């Protein structure tokens, strides 16, 4: 049975634990603090994640294969940091396994999310939509932002779920895809040039990167700089994946809230609401909606 839309409700669909913090953490914290219903659906446990902290190496998939279970606790801590109380794994914890990077043999495992039946997985997401009735849904673009199979599959599942929800008359009014404008990447290539662990080392143009969105295709710029510290805390909660000495933390320390607290989105479904600034970007993902 569907619940009525009685409050602002936003649904984030991510592939692995830590994706929510890195790409949408400030946005999630902002809306949670504002009293909106914020729901996070994570599609896998991240069992194939690369462990950057030697103390946790024994959890790896080629060792004890306990990383996924460990990351459940990391995700819970991250959600607490963001103020998010409604988190679910798609189909339940462990229903789908991390597929690993594109081309790995792990892509072919029967439980790999990359192998998931699209309508079955989308149906599980529709179940969440029936309950939470989001006006806004956030996920990745067609290439999963940077080409990871689970990110691509999260995109496919989410967009199929939106179609199924529309057939029931409960579709979200808007669907956004995470994005980074070319202008931000261009600035980053210059700003980070002399930093240790520079993620843009050797690059001279955003065209050299496997991600990035032309500024004209950006619809929203969410300024959550007041929640940058919460985003950083959420990222650090994923201790197996993000160490305090990682390039992300170095950049956070050097460039602060403007880097960590501002997040961008492309509008895939729905009408663009009123915006501002030189680009007319929305400042609110609910812009233009009457709730």
TrEMBL record:
Stored Pfam families:
PIG-L (PF02585)
Coiled-coil residues are none
GO function term, MF aspect, one: N-acetylglucosaminylinositol deacetylase activity
Give the reaction(s) catalysed.
Answer: 1D-myo-inositol 2-acetamido-2-deoxy-alpha-D-glucopyranoside + H2O = 1D-myo-inositol 2-amino-2-deoxy-alpha-D-glucopyranoside + acetate
Where are the membrane-spanning stretches? none
Q: What general EC class does the enzyme of this chain belong to?
A: hydrolase
- Keyword annotations for this protein? Hydrolase, Metal-binding, Zinc
Q: For Zn(2+), which residues are the binding ones? A: 16, 19, 151
* Enzyme Commission number, as recorded: 3.5.1.103
Annotated GO biological processes are:
mycothiol biosynthetic process
Extract the SUPFAM superfamilies matched here: LmbE-like (SSF102588)
Q: Which cofactor does it need?
A: Zn(2+)
Q: How is the cofactor bound?
A: Binds 1 zinc ion per subunit.
- Matching HAMAP family: MshB
What is the similarity comment for this entry? Belongs to the MshB deacetylase family.
NCBIfam families xref list: mycothiol_MshB (TIGR03445)
Function, please?
Catalyzes the deacetylation of 1D-myo-inositol 2-acetamido-2-deoxy-alpha-D-glucopyranoside (GlcNAc-Ins) in the mycothiol biosynthesis pathway.
Mind telling me what this protein is named?
1D-myo-inositol 2-acetamido-2-deoxy-alpha-D-glucopyranoside deacetylase
Question: What is the source species?
Answer: Virgisporangium aliadipatigenens
């Amino acid at each position: 049975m569907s619940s009525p839309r009685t409050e602002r409700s936003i649904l984030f669909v991510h592939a692995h634990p830590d994706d929510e913090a890195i790409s949408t953490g400030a946005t999630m914290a902002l809306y949670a603090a504002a009293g909106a219903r914020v729901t996070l659906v994570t599609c896998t446990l991240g069992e194939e994640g690369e462990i950057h902290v030697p103390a946790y190496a024994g959890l790896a998939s080629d060792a004890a294969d306990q990383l996924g279970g460990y990351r459940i606790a990391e995700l819970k801590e991250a959600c607490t940091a963001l103020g998010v109380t409604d988190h679910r794994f798609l189909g339940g914890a462990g229903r789908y396994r991390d597929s690993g990077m594109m081309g790995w043999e792990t892509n072919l495992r029967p439980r790999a999310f990359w192998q998931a039946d699209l309508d079955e997985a989308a149906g599980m997401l529709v179940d969440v939509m029936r309950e939470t009735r989001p006006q806004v849904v956030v996920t990745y673009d067609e290439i999963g932002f940077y080409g990871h199979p689970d990110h691509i599959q999260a995109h496919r599942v989410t967009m199929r779920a939106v179609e199924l929800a529309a057939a029931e008359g409960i579709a979200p009014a808007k669907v956004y895809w995470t994005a980074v404008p070319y202008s931000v990447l261009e600035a980053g290539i210059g700003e980070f040039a002399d930093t240790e662990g520079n993620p843009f080392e050797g690059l001279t143009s955003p065209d050299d990167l496997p991600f990035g969105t032309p500024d004209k295709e950006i619809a929203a710029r969410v300024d959550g700089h007041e929640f940058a510290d919460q985003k950083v805390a959420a990222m650090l909660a994923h201790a197996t994946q993000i160490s305090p000495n990682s390039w992300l933390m170095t950049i956070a320390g050097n460039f602060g809230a403007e880097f960590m607290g501002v997040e961008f989105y492309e509008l895939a479904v729905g009408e663009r609401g009123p915006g501002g600034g030189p680009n007319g970007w929305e400042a609110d993902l609910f812009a233009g909606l009457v709730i």
